[in-house]
């Protein structure tokens, strides 16, 4: 369609006039259910939506990928391959059209064809394609086209024009020879297109505003024999300026016609209204997009922005200060509208962080971006107005102020360690002494309490003294020291005393002194006494103050005590410990005080004795009580065929085993109780005993590999016993169930070792069998059930053994309407069942609604309307327009629409019925001729 407008100067006003036109656009629905033969590539298979008319030695193939055919599809992903054979057999398919081809219409039919020379092991020759159109499936009485011999090995589009003599509801395709002599040939076909001829399209409905003197041009595009417009015009184009439906009927070169309708709405001219906002805000340095929306007037609009080069409805503005912008809008009719917008420029927020911050001896500092802003965003994602900083580095913040304006600032923060001085916390001076105060070197400046600036000062009076120092980082600190008078030094070595020879007796004046000087010149903080004599010490404290003390020490002899060397006794013997000499006291390890001690068990025994000088000595002895034993350990396990060596222990004087043998070792070769008596080097008697049990070593054989059918369950059994079982590495018991193909490995183990074996279990697939959905058989027809090709055996419910089974109406059994087949492949079987029932519906093909009470109503025959649970019927005219539908077909249709009789002619109906106890759905299509006998 071509729409154009003839334009004048001034706008006119047009008022909408709405009326209905009883013509509709012919349905543009898909004619065929699967015109591109889409499906899963497979041999001997019809694509979805297509069926085989005559199953013979082979059936059509869904290509590519079968028998060496690899040509890419011309449309979609798959296509159809059909063959003719040298035995006068050839292949075919048929389908029922979604929309019948009407007897009063013309069609252009196109199909892509190609030749395949090598198919499997056969050399093929070119063949032709026959196409049949009929009112029944697989009816080959009406050939509508036969192609020439197809010799092209790439896709070529073949087309022909069809003007049916009757309504065609079914289409059949078959491969055939060039001539009548049989030979091998193979043809590929794809992408059937059915085009209505002529084909008219006025385009979509339109809404517009016209200026004064303008008209809208509606153009068919030309190329037709004749034109009949709703306005009475016979031209290929008309000009309109009024709201309404406009239709045209055109006649094509083949003598067929087509009709199309377009609705045109002419709007009344209204003055333009601008929808642009009065003002907007922006931040300084940013841009703002202004969008101008216009209502009414007549499109298209043009725009003239004052002082700007922009001529569109959208303009980007970026003034430095608040500015008002003006725009003039002119529509296609020449009317002008002026609008304006004020752009208010907001200043960005001020932050004011310093460039550098130095933190001396601190752990953190707080950065402040200022208060009163809408939002804050620091570099770490925090959103407070302040940020606590604990690490050196560069920190930044972004703030949003009034109007959403943003600004950012940054600061570099440095952290320096605190300054430490060497001044003591406090110190002291001796009477008439002085002290040197020194905070340490390396500082850039010093300031003392007395305003001196040297590194050190000397003070001789008690008091508090301070100094302030600074370093190269600009950091400073102040430290102070408390200076006190030191008290007199007090030294105390204790009173004169007596000590025992061998005691560790030390003299000490105490800790905390700077220097020590003993009577013999030693300078240690303590002095060890080894003999009688007079001892003195001279000390100096941290303040240089000194003191001394003297003490007399007498050293007396200690007792000589000897309990003897460590010893060993036999279990049951007694040892008496009795030291030589006389003492004033005895104290044993258990605090007993007798001068002797009786030993009967292993242990450490100690005695402390005191002499007349009150000096004490301690001695100890370890006594071992022995009872020799052969350390065999716990009872043990012996694996069949192995040996075990028992060791009664080395170093004993004699051995006597249960069998009279006298060696240290004994070799065990079987189960039993084994014992030995021993005498050790101390002459003590001992023994040992162990019980040995015997177990067999594991052995395993899972048998031969197995093959089963998918769905079966195979149980593998392993030998019973005290074993641990691991099936494919997972612990289990002595049986294992297998339901899928693969290798099964078993490992069994006990204390004597492990054994493993594997077995391969394969599952052949259960053959896939599908007889399809339950069907309804129409009287006089037959249904051929196909169990599928490639199985080893077939067994139908009546004992027959072929791939196909034909069901006729005469063979139907209402009492048992079920059909069953069992197939086998590689030893595995499967089956399927479907139900076929007889269905009868009789619908008239002609009615004469002339009110003569004879054949006035379109309704089914009640005698052929049994067993229907629900239904829905639709009736269409030749343009595909629905004229009647109902779910009460029994009451019938009187041939009227909206109370008025429809025109005489051929109509098409589609009936959906749900039949029987299982609500089987059946769709029936047909045509109805209405002859009213009136003009």
* Overall pLDDT level: 85
Spans with pLDDT under 50 lasting ≥5 residues? 1-29
* Rg, nearest Å: 59 Å
User: Order of strands side by side in the largest beta sheet?
Assistant: 2-3-12-5-10
| Residues in helices, as a percent range | under 10%
Ends apart, CA distance between termini: 35 Å
The helix tally amounts to 0
Question: How would you describe this structure to a colleague?
Answer:
The chain starts with a strand and ends in a 5-residue tail after the last strand. Helices cover 0% and strands 47% of the residues. A hairpin with a 2-residue loop joins strand 6 and strand 7. The protein is built from no helices and 76 strands. Residues 1-29 have low confidence and may be disordered. By secondary structure, the protein is mainly beta. The strands form 24 sheets. The protein has a five-stranded antiparallel sheet with strand order 2-3-12-5-10, with no helix packed on it. The chain has a five-stranded mixed sheet with strand order 57-63-62-59-60, with no helix packed on it.
How would you summarize what this structure contains?
With 935 residues, this protein is an all-beta fold.
List the helices and strands and how they pair.
Layout: E1 2-6, E2 61-63, E3 79-84, E4 92-101, E5 106-115, E6 118-119, E7 122-123, E8 128-134, E9 143-146, E10 156-162, E11 168-176, E12 185-197, E13 206-209, E14 215-219, E15 226-229, E16 237-240, E17 244-251, E18 257-267, E19 273-274, E20 279-283, E21 288-291, E22 294-295, E23 302-305, E24 314-317, E25 323-330, E26 336-346, E27 356-360, E28 365-368, E29 375-378, E30 386-389, E31 393-400, E32 406-416, E33 426-429, E34 435-437, E35 445-448, E36 457-459, E37 463-470, E38 476-485, E39 497-500, E40 505-507, E41 515-518, E42 527-529, E43 533-540, E44 546-556, E45 567-570, E46 575-577, E47 585-588, E48 597-599, E49 603-610, E50 616-626, E51 636-639, E52 644-647, E53 654-657, E54 665-668, E55 672-679, E56 685-695, E57 706-709, E58 714-717, E59 724-727, E60 730-732, E61 735-738, E62 742-750, E63 753-764, E64 775-778, E65 782-786, E66 793-796, E67 804-808, E68 818-825, E69 828-839, E70 846-847, E71 868-876, E72 882-886, E73 896-897, E74 900-901, E75 905-915, E76 920-930
Parallel strand pairs: 13-18, 20-26, 27-32, 33-38, 39-44, 45-50, 51-56, 57-63, 64-69, 70-76
Antiparallel strand pairs: 1-14, 2-3, 3-12, 4-11, 5-10, 5-12, 6-7, 8-9, 8-11, 14-16, 15-17, 17-18, 19-22, 21-24, 23-25, 25-26, 28-30, 29-31, 31-32, 34-36, 35-37, 37-38, 40-42, 41-43, 43-44, 46-48, 47-49, 49-50, 52-54, 53-55, 55-56, 58-61, 59-60, 59-62, 62-63, 65-67, 66-68, 68-69, 71-72, 71-75, ...
